[in-house]
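Good morning C.,

I know you're traveling, so I'll keep this short. The sequence:
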Amino acid sequence: MAIDRGYGIATSSVIADSYDLDALIADTEAAKVAALAAQVAAELAETNAETAETNAETAETNAETAETGAAASAATATTQAALATTNGAAQVTLATAQVALATTQAGLATTNGAAQVTLATAQVALATTQATNAATSATNAASSATTATTQASTATTQATTATAKAVLTAADAVSTAADVVLAEADKVQTGLDRVATAADKVATNADVVLTAADVVLAEADRVSSAASATTATTQASTATTQASTATTKATEAAASAATATTQASTATTQATAAAASATAAAASADAFDDTYLGAKASDPTLDNDGDALTEGDMYFNTGTDRLKVYSGSAWADVAVDSATVVTKTSATGSGALPSGTTAQRDGSPAAGYIRFNTTDTSAEIYDGSAWTPVGGGNTTDEALYEHSATVAANYSITSGNNALTAGPITINTGISVTVPTGSTWVIV
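The C-alpha cells, ready to paste straight into the viewer:
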C-alpha cells in the first residue's frame, strides 16, 4: 500500500507539473497577444504618420493653389485696370470689384494655409505619440515573456522538490518494515526517480522550446515594432518637414497676396487717373467738336451737338473752299488782317501795296521792302542802303517827274548808268553820291 501511495504521489506531482505547464502556455499566449497588439499599434502609428504626410502635402498643394490664385487674381486685376484705362470710366467700377475679390481670395488663401499647417502639426504630434506607445507596448511584451519564462522555471523546481520530499517520506515509512521491503522500495524509488527525471527532462525541454519560441517571437515583434516605429518616426519627420514647407508656402502665398493687393491698389489708382484723363479728353474733344464743326456744304445753323451756334465757331465750306467763322450773328470767310498783309484784288487783278508818306517809312527797313510813297506819289523800294523810286521805263504819262531836292542817304549810281537831277540839289552832311567810272551825273 505504501508503495502504491508513493507511486501515486509521484504521479500527482507529474500532473501538477502539467498544470503549471498549461499556465505557462497561457501566460505565453497572453504575452504573444500583447506583442501582436503592440505591432497593431505600431502599424496604426505608421498609418497615422502617412495620413499626416498626406495632409501636409495637401496643405502644401492648397498653399501653392492659393499662391497661383492670388497671382492670377492680381494679373486679372491688372488686365482689367488696363481695360478700364482704354474704355474709360465705364470700366473703373468693374476693376474696383476685381480688386476687392483678389484681396478677399488672398485673405482666404492665407487662412486656409495656416489651418492646414496647424492640422498637419497636430497629426505629426499624434503619430509621434502613437509610435512611442507602440515601442512601450513592445517593451511590455518582452517583459511579459521574460516573466513567463521565470515562472515556468520556478514551477519545474517546485515539482522536483515535491517529488523528492514524497519519495523520502515513503522510504522512511518502508525502511522500518524489512530489508526486503526496503530493497523493493529502493527499486521503486529508482523507478520513480527515473520517471521524475524523465518528467523533468520533458518539462525542461518544453520550457526550452517555449522560451526559444517566446524569444524568437518577442525578437520578431520587437524588430517589427522597432521597424514600424522607425518608419513612423521617419514619416513623422517627413510630415514635419513638409508641414514646414507648407508653412513657408503659405507665407509666400500671403506675401504674394499682399503684393497683389498693392498692385491692385496701384492699378485702381491708375485706372482712376486714366478715367479722369479720359473724361477730360472726352470733354476737350467735345468742346473742340462744338467749336470746329468740320467740312460742310453750306452754313450750319446749329453746332454738332444740335446746340445754338456761338461766336468763334468755324467750319470748312466745301463749295467755296473757304474756312468760315461765326461772328455771333453771321458766317464770314476767315481773312488775314489787311493792316499787315498785302492783298490782291483778284487772281488776275492787282496787288495792293502798303502806302504812306515819306515820314511813315519803316524805321529799320531791309533790302527788298517795297511800298507806295504818297508824298512822292510813286512806288519805292529799299535797296539795302536807301529808298529808291521804282523805275517804270523811259516814258511816263505824267507831265512832271519829281524827285527830292535833298540827298539824305548815301547813293551810288549803278555802274554803266548815267543819272539826271533837276537842281539845285542839296547833299546832307556826311552823305555821299558815288559816280562810277564811265558814268555821268548831270544836274540841270
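Safe travels,
E.
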